[in-house]
Amino acid sequence: KPLHLPPVVHIHPNQHPKMLPPSEVPSKSKVVWEKFSHQSKFQRKLYHYGTFPQHFSWGVSSSAYQTEGGWNADGKGASIWDTFTHKPSSSIPDKANGDVACDSYHRLKEDLYMLRALKVKSYRFSLSWSRIFPNGLRTSLNQKGVDYYNRLIDGLLADNITPMVTLYYWDLPQALQNNGGWYNVGMIDIFNDFCDFCFATFGDRVKFWMTFNQPYTIAWSGYGLGQIPPNVKNPGTAPFKVAHNLIKAHAKAYHTYDDKYRRSQGGLVSIALNGDWFEPKDVNVPREVVAADRALQFQLGWFAHPIFKNGDYPDAMKWQVGNKSELQGLSESRLPVFSDEEKRFIQGTADMFCLNHYTTKIAKDEEKDSPTTAISNQRAVAWGLRRLLNWIKEEYGDPQIYITENGVSTDSKTTWDDSARVFYYKTYINEALKAHDIDGVKVKGYTATSLMDSFEWLHGYTVGFGLHHVDFTNPNRPRTPKYSAHFYYQVIKNNGFPTTDDDKPLYGHFRKDFIWSTATASYQVTLEEDNIWDKFAHTPLRIFNDDNGDIACDSYHKVEEDVEILKHLKVTHYRFSISWSRVLPDGTTKHINEAGLNYYHKLVDTLLAANIQPHVCITLYHWDLPQALQDIGGWENETIVVKFRDYADFIFSRLGHKVKFWITINEPYNIANVGTAPYTVGHNLIKAHAEAWHLYNDKYRAEHKGIISITINSDWSEPRNPYKQEDVDAARRVVQFYIGWFAHPIFNGDYSPVMFRSSHCRLPEFSPEEIQRIKGTYDYFGFNHYTTVLAFPVDYGNLGAGTIADRTWLDSGSGWLKVSPFGFRRILNFIKENYGNPPIIITENGISERGPVDLNDVHRSYYYEKYITQVLKAYLLDGVDVRGYTAWSLMDNLEWATGFSERFGLFYVNRSDPKLPRVAKASVSRYSTIISCNGFPDPASGPNECLNPEPEGKWSINCLYNVKNNTETAIATSRNV
């Protein structure tokens, strides 16, 4: 049968490659930390689309004791794990054991069926030594055990699946342990005889061999900590002696294959080593880098250094253990010594590098001469895999690498709906792809752990690593594919992550009169008057860092500066809000603040003079209700409908001859959903909007010739598990609820059935007359959108739906906002299909950041380019009637309850300078270029003048700011942006 293994250079034992020098301290591989540890979070998490080579080996794994069962069937002898789990004192939960496990010994056809359905190219499994040689020696040969593995191997080959065989996976025959186990040097020859038999018996069909699985675990956990069989607790000397024997046993088995079988069988032999990635606690501190390197040398290098470098232990390990031994008054190091002949015999005894990897740890500089112990919590830190693969490339002469184990456990309550495992595979496999595609690491195969839930060693059956769920309460041990099995099948089918249609660029242009805008909100940028946010912000401990809008960006006094940066941005429109309490301090027309009204006159006139045309967008209400109205119930009091209408009438009469673009209320969902009576508030908001719309339509439209609508916000929602109908239904409910609460009455008439069902009879009803008055109160669909969520059903809340984010999506400075551009196009199509394809004006879209200020905000440029591309796709490809786009926000401002800690701005506002200067970020250039091009010109059409930067000196910034440790220091400079 054809194999799925790429060609590997076979090395004859007498023609070893040039011996690599021993590792320095720290090793030269410290370049990996220098290369990667200073990556920004954006660079680290950016998803990479691409595919692996044609012959990439996709596999799954298992091991004999974990899956086979039949612990004493057909003459099998006892292993050390049989003995350990049968002890009454066993600490394994529920006294679990592998006596039956998945019963693969009797259910081989079912295992082969799963493998065939997954379309894997390889299957890694181990041989039970005591099933073949019950007492560990050839003289006890059990033919029925041999027959079982023949059936397995033949079954795999019949399905065109390459067997990847591990000769020893921790289950030593008990009879051999009775003679000292791996502490006994005689085990070297005994193991070699077992390997010799397996090579001779199965090697005509098996072409990929691993001698040991995780010898580090055997030595340290088995003979040092005593956690696993044979449960020897002697960390001072036993692990080093055992490891010494394991290395020599591996080398001898390798040479046996090389001398007797390679020429006729043409297979490969290696050893499966486990390695975590170790990240320095502080990469800028040399001793911490040394500590991380030492941790790698003690775990991975303990075995890889002799085999792949120079036949000897790493110098870091020899020095550390030797020095400690000397301090302890020992005559020689506790670390054994290889003779020169042994070094030559060991060096180069692997045809490829087999790596088991699960997690990443932080290394600290501590004086220890023992390996790092295992942690109880396996953290999903996918970027560590890429760095480890690069470290192996640098440290061990760029070998071919097979990832022979990688996976994550979930608790036993998780049966087939394992979205956490999907995220794990999605991120880890992508990091392997980055290492291959971007870094040139020779990654040749990936093996997912594991084929199915099985006996998980000291955890028994309380956790599961499987792509398939096994019901261990059922004697038939039925297997059920999990969500992760479906996902992994697609990865194999696609050979990685080819660029999806969602992620492909689109070149083209928007309509000629497309609206390009940016936005602010009154309370967020101006010195404010008495409103509910003003009171909230002055309540102790309510706002992050006690930030408030008392000064904010001081736009009240900086009209000219704000308009200048708008001109530089090249927007055609500017969306801002009116502060109700600035013009009507008590919320009514009893007292008019002419000074406040004059500010808006000045702002509108300055904008129009700057040719920000043809009209200015004004939001009548952006959450800053006058405190006097809140004192009488705010939006819960139905009288506010009339008060809002009167306020709108006043503003239309004073500014309407200049303003042609109105928004009544911004994001009514967020206004309603924070109070104690959300449905009452929502009801009043809808009626208030309708009254303001009719007022403008009846009294002002003919003369002012403007348009008016409401702005509704919504995330897009996808099912957490697309193969689960309950999740699909939950995702639909989320979108229907977020948008439909307000859009359905305004665009279709009355609340949607979803709203009625989810409100549990608490939703007020509109009268037939109210329905008639509300329906159709729009001139366009104002829409705010930022992110996408993954939905799943829950037994509580109005919707019965919870949401999470895909861990592969890029982060922002806001925990709720993940970069997921594809959702934008989908929700625009949802609006088209559900609300009659109305004209859509996107009134907010943007991304935040936190932490030290970096004017090179590449993540924001990336966000705008990707999201606007999705808008263009909706417009050009789907026929969605998109009329405009608004970037949130013009400048860093007060982000409501998070204060100034989250920054959405295209312009940075230096709040440590009393003048509050506005400084352009890099995203200004990207957004202004998109505006100039009215989309994305096709590079194939040649240079486009819209891509030409402005002449030098057209817009200068006199001060840039270096921000570190929350201290802002002015740097005297003059720089064109």
Keywords:
single chain, 977 residues, alpha/beta, TIM Barrel, eight-stranded parallel beta barrel, eight-stranded parallel β-barrel, 33 helices
- Portion in helices: 25-40%
Summarize the biggest pleated sheet.
Answer: 8 strands, parallel, barrel
**How are the strands of the largest sheet arranged?**
2-3-4-5-6-8-10-12
Assess the beta-strand content as a share of residues: 15-25%
Distance between the termini: 63 Å
CA-based shape = elongated
Assembly classification: single chain
Radius of gyration: 34 Å
CATH superfamily of the largest domain: Glycosidases
The CATH architecture of the largest domain is Alpha-Beta Barrel
CATH class of the largest domain: Alpha Beta
Record field, number of beta strands: 33
Q: Assign the structural class, choosing from mainly alpha, mainly beta, alpha/beta, alpha+beta, or little secondary structure.
A: alpha/beta
Low-pLDDT segments, ≥5 res? 1-16, 369-376, 532-551, 951-977
Helical stretch tally: 33
CATH fold call of the largest domain = TIM Barrel
Mean pLDDT: 90
What does this structure look like?
The protein is of the alpha/beta class. It has 2 domains: 470 residues, TIM Barrel; 399 residues, Alpha-Beta Barrel (TIM Barrel), CATH 3.20.20. The strands form 10 sheets. An 8-stranded parallel β-barrel has the order 2-3-4-5-6-8-10-12, surrounded by 5 helices. The protein has an 8-stranded parallel beta barrel with strand order 18-19-20-21-22-24-27-28. Strands 23-25-26 form a 3-stranded mixed beta sheet. Helix 32 links the parallel strand 27 and strand 28.
